[in-house]
Amino acid sequence: MFSPFIGPEKFSDPDTAALDALKKTNGQSICEDKEFAGLICMDNKKNYFATEANRGEEHESSPFDSPCPGSTVIATYHTHGAYSFGYADDFFSKRDVGVYEYNNVLGYLGTPGGEFKKTDKSGKELFSKKELTTVCRIHAN
């Protein structure tokens, strides 16, 4: 959570920062059937944090609408909303991978099936873990 006095919550690695952000947004994403997206940043002390998620559309989001203030972009994170007919919502899309390749960043995904996924800059999946909610839920923080 971002505090105007101390800034966003910091973590020792990007995976934990991404998981924290996706735990806060995946339930709401499923409720609204909208993608939510943001960035994972590294500050000058090598601490990692997530920018505030911004609401996208049903099958589209813009993580770079939430820039990393005074820090380095390491990755993007986003959700895929609710299940949609004709979409492989539990997987990174070709469009997702194109963003990672073009911007030379890692990618994290929260799926409607509750999976927390990570891919490298070329789209190779590095892990998939069942750590997120699969139900409509709006996070209080």
What's the oligomerization state?
single chain
Number of domains: 1
**Number of separate strands:** 7
Residue share in β-strands: 25-35%
Mean pLDDT figure = 92
Taken in chain order, the helices and strands follow as HEEEEHEEE
Query: What coarse outline follows from CA principal-axis ratios?
Result: globular
Describe this protein's structure:
With 141 residues, the chain is α+β, with helices and mostly antiparallel strands. The protein has one domain. Helix content is 21%, strand content 26%. It contains 2 helices and 7 strands, in the order αββββαβββ. It has helices spanning 14-32, 94-103; strands at 36-42, 48-50, 54-55, 72-79, 106-110, 115-119, 125-130. Strands 1, 2, 3, 4, 5, 6 and 7 form a 7-stranded mixed beta sheet that branches. InterPro entries: DUF4329. This is DUF4329 domain-containing protein. Residues 16-127 form the DUF4329 domain. Pfam families: DUF4329 (PF14220).
SSE map:
Layout: H1 14-32, E1 36-42, E2 48-50, E3 54-55, E4 72-79, H2 94-103, E5 106-110, E6 115-119, E7 125-130
Parallel strand pairs: 4-5
Antiparallel strand pairs: 1-2, 1-3, 1-4, 5-6, 6-7
In short:
With 141 residues, the protein is an alpha+beta fold. 21% of the residues lie in helices and 26% in strands. Strands 1, 2, 3, 4, 5, 6 and 7 form a seven-stranded mixed beta sheet that branches.
Primary descriptors:
seven-stranded mixed beta sheet; 141 residues; 2 helices; single chain; alpha+beta; 7 strands
